[in-house]
Amino acid sequence: MKQRLSLALASLLAAALLSAPASAAAPAPFVSPSAWMSALGQQVLAPGYAELARSSATLAQRVDAVCRQPGDGTLDAARDAWRQAALELRRLSALPYGPALESRILRRLDFWPTRPPQIESSLRGRTAGTLPDERIGVTAKGLPALEYLLFDPARASLATDAAACGYASWLAADAARDLDAILPAWQDWIASLEEIDEESEASMMSDSVNILIGGIDTLRVKYLEKPARKPAERSGFDAWRSGGERSHLLALFDGLRLGLQGREGLPGLTAMLRGRGLLVLAERFDAQIALAGDALQALPASPGEDGGAAIARAIEALAVLQGLLAHDAAEHLKVRVGFGDNDGD
Fold first, then answer.
1. What would the pLDDT profile of 190-235 be if each residue is shown by its tens digit?
2. How far is CA 119 from each of CA 34, 230, 276, 296, rounded to the nearest angstrom?
């Protein structure tokens, strides 16, 4: 009798286990928004900005060397330093979180499209002593402005234009100072993420997802669609003066991919989806991220010259990825999408 009862109980238990909802067991570790941002801050943003600060300091030294010892050697060294710092900046510009967002440092370092008339006007005013440094606006500052002065084929070389070289030297030093000033804020921000309440977690989720939506839109519209509307004008593309159009597009996407997908030991948005049981959606993200990455890799070095079809494929792949984030992921994560149309600045 006892044996029959035990068998019956075992059968009932087995049936209950088989009928239990599949979501009862978490398919992956749960990742909170604060844990996501903390890992991104510790592994990507804080060290990335520290490295950018070092590269910017090197750039400032190299530009100053051009002014002190004008020549092809010092100019080439300054250009190489700019290329390194600019690529580092482009990767970080995809992830404007924490102190980068609060300080708006990216607007000061990375105003684009470049405005040569404003740069030349500020150069003349500063050289004449009629424009104080503190009144020079963001449209005439930052690494894109430095690219114009270092590389533009239509203006005199810094090695032969002492006034422009002095202005470029100040721009480089100003960028390095801005970056040095922001470095201590990263550790404070990361520490603040250790204990936040449920309401703050929800707000952080919304802000973080919206920033990624904006980043994809910026890459798609500002850096690809708008320049491609005038295919004969290579000058519409970021970093065309330095010949870095494709490398800058890839660097921006690399930054976005870290936020979306993470890497080994670094959770991204897809880890958050898996931790909430959204395995199919996470796989769709992985597949679309790969497609977008491949499409960008297929771009020619100078997309403005011969990249029409390749640009169209990259734009389409990014549009699908943005839709996944703004609709599917936002709905499942209960995020209200507040990102508007790209304003082109």
1. 999 998 899 999 999 999 999 999 999 999 999 999 998 876 667 8
2. 40, 24, 49, 31
CB burial of 22-35 (b: ≥16 within 10 Å; e: otherwise) equals: eeeeeebeebbbbb
For 327, other C-beta atoms within 10 Å of its C-beta total: 11
Q: Which residues pair with 266 in a beta bridge?
A: 263
Q: Which domains does the chain have, with CATH numbers?
A: 28-196 (1.20.1420.20), 197-345 (1.20.1420.20)
Of the candidates 269, 249, 218, which has an alpha carbon nearest to the alpha carbon of residue 40? Answer: 269
189: which residues sit within 8 A by CB, 6+ positions away? 41, 98, 99
Instruction: Indicate the residue type of 38.
Output: S
% of the chain exceeding 90 in pLDDT: 83
Gap between the Cα atoms of 55 and 175, Å rounded? 10
Mean pLDDT of 169-198: 96
Residue for token pair 């049936």: 15
